[in-house]
Amino acid sequence: MRLTCVKKALCCLLLVEIALLVAACSKGNASGDADYAAIGWEQMTLTAEAGVVCLRIADATAPGLRWSAEITSGNWASFGNWSSYRLTAEGQVETSPASRLIAIYYLDNVGSTDRTLTVRFTFDGRDAVELTLQQPALGGGEHVSGDTSWAWPELPERVDNANFSYVTHFAPVYDQTLGREVSKRNFTLCFDRTKRASWWVAYPMHAAYLGSSPRPDEPWTYDPLLESAWQANLALGSYTGWSLARGHQIANADRNANRTMQLQTFYNSNCTPQNYDLNGGPWMRLESKVRNWKCNDTLYVVTGAYWDPSSTSTTTDKAKQVCPVPTHYFKVLARTVKGNVRKAGDRLGDYRADELKTIGFWVENKDVVTEAESWVMSVEEIEQKSGFVFFPTLPKEAKRQKNKSQWF
Description:
7% of the residues lie in helices and 31% in strands.
């Protein structure tokens, strides 16, 4: 039997005890089997935003009965939280109400079309029940060039390249309005398997992402959403050569509100071979300035590396894998001028150019003695250099700005 749910909003990240909807899963020749079939939910749907919902095993189901469950469609959901991603779960029916709840964690649907989540549930080898939830699209977001997968202001236009993979990592963020943590985007990256690194990492900058969580010790690890064979192995140490550091694109200090979001910045996909003195000197000081430029309306940031096609410079990781060395680095920023005028549901691109401020920075990957104020370019100029389109919903006039006095 298939249960199909209709749209009805739930509160984001609310652990919902879902009311019983009995679904018969008997083999057809034993009426008693129907007693083991009690699992389901009311006619509800997932919210578009990331959250958690719960299946509930009926009170009438006999204690001691073994069960198993599998998410058969929808790789955006998990029986574990996002530090322990799992498509399967199993257990034994217990007597307490809390033990009969089975949590399903799910991610934002940033597209413009609805999608479904199918869970197959079985008691002690009896015929399975399939339950289907529908998740509505966020819709009306910052969609770009007909591409329905991009909904956040910081995201550049997607480039159609077979070597590119686009990945978003989510982490708990404290929501002052709700008074609790909710799952929100941490950062999105454009990873190039031929570079063993990302061309850009895009992320929101806000006080909610900042705190005092201590920097982890040597935590570099593979990005779990990308093939490990594509990535540099940085857990063994830095790149070959004393002059190259393991350079974060989104800085660890940009995400120190809690350990989960902090550890995600140590994924190998967020690292490039960056000049040691640049990394620990003027580039680090620019990162500090960017944190100070945050605002209540959110500062949107894209940090990137650039490999000049004529460059043949490479290094290796400690596993002796070849890693091309970027020739340049950049940052592009966008926010409202006042910093406190945005309203829920509005679009950054709906604001006039004079209500927005943007700036860009472009620097060679070498030991430099200059500071970020001398690296300033407009976002439009960095688009021309890099080949990417940044903040694509913003008025073009806004991306031509490079007014230092608005920032420094």
